[in-house]
Specification:
By secondary structure, this protein is an alpha/beta fold. The chain is 37% helix and 25% strand. It starts with a strand and ends with a strand.
Amino acid sequence: MTKVLLSIGGFDPTSGAGVIADIRTANALGEYAVSVITSVVVQNSLGVIEVEPIRQKVIRDQLKCLKEDFSIGALKISMPYSKEIAKIIVEMIGDQKVPIVFDPIIKSKNGFFLIKKEDIWDVLNILFPVSALVTPNIDEASFFAKMNIEKQDDLKEAAKRITKLGAKAVLIKGGHLKGEEKTDLLFDGKDYFFFKEKTLNSQVHGTGCVFSSAIAVYLLKGYNLNFAVENSKKFITKVISGSLKLGKGYRLVNF
């Protein structure tokens, strides 16, 4: 039976991020994705205006329904919104022996909280231990590690601290660091691996979602973590190069 990617996250009406971006990414890389919506986000290319979580029973029923019908080969989790929803996710996927990529998005680009502020640490404590990889950006990694990240050595220290929170492996997306090259750091709990690409336009909505979902797709295909990150880095660089200016705000990812 063909395995599929299960994306668990928010619905973004611009199609630039969230589960729609995950589905688009899977399709672009030759795989199929199914999804569970945790929340509906009111937003456009200018930013997020409102977040409305889905009823917990509906989330539980979505997961149960999909598990009964599909062979899940990998999971991508983002925007669980609350500790209650995070608990449901772990409860419902607990028996799935497949790679899980967790993109711990805290805020939108315009500063709107996408996880209940008072639940952030609870959500991390629930989802980090079940994840094969967590993929924070610089700002998120700085928050989790409780330190400023300004150079490559800081990336290594932050990644080490984040694994102590329960993460098996950490990929810190360095898109917000200054310089002609954008450096991402993968720490697998033992070794550090740097991935570099030329700096491109950072005013693109959805890059983090696409990057992390591409990694999940490569893990679904059976590749190891290093290969998955390296090839996802190349993929997201191509996606950014082809991004489109369709609205009045940020550019949108394009495949």
